[in-house]
Amino acid sequence: MSSDLAGAVWRRSSHSQNNGQCVEVAFLADGRVATRDSKDNGVGPALAFAPGKWAAFNGGIVDGEFEQR
């Protein structure tokens, strides 16, 4: 997958701080969405999600599915 990410444009939330605890996201040309840990400086692993899976994940965030109780 690393060759798929060669031209990726990585973004962080505007709410992120420069403390190294951020997740970066790249929207790929084929519709997938890739994520990685910012503190790996672009050399660590990345995960790529199909568009439907990414939409379901975001829906879970909005619905509070991942909040610690």
UniProtKB/TrEMBL annotation:
<feature type="domain" description="DUF397">
    <location>
        <begin position="8"/>
        <end position="60"/>
    </location>
</feature>
<dbReference type="Pfam" id="PF04149">
    <property type="entry name" value="DUF397"/>
</dbReference>
<protein>
    <submittedName>
        <fullName>DUF397 domain-containing protein</fullName>
    </submittedName>
</protein>
<dbReference type="InterPro" id="IPR007278">
    <property type="entry name" value="DUF397"/>
</dbReference>
